[in-house]
Amino acid sequence: MGVDPVEALDRLIEGNRRFMADAPGDPDRFNAERRGQLVSGQAPFAAILSCADSRVPAEVVFDQGLGDLFVVRVAGNIAAPSQMGSLEFAAEKLGVRLVVVLGHSCCGAIDATVEALREQVEAPTEGLRKILDRVRPAVEPLLAESLEPPDLSREAVRANVRMAARMLREESPILARLRAEQGLAVVGAEYDLPTGAVRFFDGLTDAGELPPADQR
Predict the structure, then answer these.
(1) SS3 helix, strand, coil % of the chain, rounded to 5?
(2) Which of 51, 62, 110, 194 has the most CB atoms at less than 10 Å from its CB?
């Protein structure tokens, strides 16, 4: 069994604090010795389903080194079958007990989905259409709420994170079993581009996986 999910979450929170403070941790996390230690295998303490946006590299945002995080990146941080399968591998084979769905502010995939819905236009390629179709169920209900663009974008990002986290909890038999039997947790978070802060907001309440930070 891997690192306890509460401990794993605390490591991520502390790492993000270092990142925001421009105070990186262990200087040896990328050196030749560390690379050599990882040749025979890996034991990441958390898995991250993150957007492919170049401004949101999870290892940097959480101030982690080689071998610390199992990161799956895809536009819109969607939980499509291949992404779900990768996270199942991390949990089943590598012992990860914390899965984080990480969205971010100013997400192009979210904004493109909102635009496509408002303008009633199709995505220009099949690949893009498949991504937008995955985001659509989270975003579409918000259009009826008459939100202004900044608020709509923010709420759409969070709704998309919640949807992906719910899919991982409910639609993966492997993750569901590990949640029930070994305490695996799936939580959602949002990265703020201007400040560098990560806010964990899904899976930390009464209906979720872990207690909030102020209760640990």
Answers:
(1) 50, 15, 35
(2) 110
**Rounded-to-integer distance, Cα 133 and Cα 128, Å:** 8
Question: Tokens standing for 174?
Answer: 């492997």
- Beta-bridge partners for 73: 50
| pTM score above 0.90 | yes
pLDDT tens figures, 3-12: 999 999 999 9
Residue ranges and CATH numbers for the domains of the chain are 5-204 (3.40.1050.10)
Residue 60 backbone dihedrals phi, psi, to 5 degrees: -75, -45
Contacts of 110 (CB under 8 A, 6+ apart): 76, 103, 135, 139, 153, 156, 157, 160
Whether the CB-CB separation of 38 and 70 falls below 8 Å is answered with no
- 3 state SS of 65: coil
How far apart CA 7 and CA 30 sit, in angstroms, is 22
Q: Which of 133, 82, 87 is nearest to 109 (CA)?
A: 133
Place of tokens 């891997």: 2
pLDDT in tens, 32-74: 888 898 899 999 999 999 999 999 999 999 999 999 999 999 9
Rounded to whole angstroms, how far apart are CA atoms 102 and 79? 11
